[in-house]
Orotidine 5'-phosphate decarboxylase
Amino acid sequence: MSETAPQPQLYVALDFADPKLVEPFVDQLNPGECGLKVGKELFTRGGPDLVRRLVQQGFPVFLDLKFHDIPHTVEQACKAACDLGVRLVNVHAMGGRAMMAAARRAVSESSGSPALIAVTVLTSMNQSALAEVGVTRPLAEQVSMLARLAQEEGLDGVVCSALEAHAMRRIFTQPVPAIVTPGIRPSGAALDDQSRVMTPSEAIFAGATSLVVGRPITRAPNPAGVVSDILASIASSD
Ligand SMILES: O=c1ccn([C@@H]2O[C@H](COP(=O)(O)O)[C@@H](O)[C@H]2O)c(=O)[nH]1
């Protein structure tokens, strides 16, 4: 198992269509309080330089590109991700054992110490969406099966919904696993396209180690205020 840097309890998902919006937004946040998640939309528009700038500003960065390809390609992509100095990288567990082993090799050999985690079942999916892609076993079992595969290949944790966080703690038994949960909604917030959701305090209580929150923060009139509220609500659930 690799020695990884500590993860923040909150990653703010920077799902902006225009990279120019990132700087003024990020200026409202404190790198000592939260990390930033760069996903497919912003990375495709802003590129690696944007990621490097966020790292230089002192933010823990989760590069959420969910690699899913043949093992060699994922190994090389993981090397490139590690070179950016990010705190957290991920692959899709559905890429299989050999692909996760290749990712593990790449990240372990990198000079930084990002955590490497595997996406189990996307938080936007429910049981019927899973059935439509041919998976008929109960969703929670599918999450656990993929998590066990990731654990056997030495990954540091998973992306799952907070509904599955407790089960993940039994699979990843290291002192500080990375149980990273999107699908977080403060009570009363719109669900948008998420299916498997919990509030921030429920998620931490259930065993999540890092929450990923996007639209409830980025679309709020006072994003820094929502960040403070979330941090205050999870401080009492620790
Ligand atoms: O299963 C997953 C994996 C990744 N995500 C990402 O998290 C954020 C969630 O954003 P919200 O606006 O809070 O819904 C987004 O960037 C997704 O790509 C996920 O939601 N579920």
Summary: The mean pLDDT is 97. The first strand starts at residue 10 and ends at 13. The domain at 10-235 is CATH 3.20.20.70 (TIM Barrel). The chain has ten helices and eight strands.
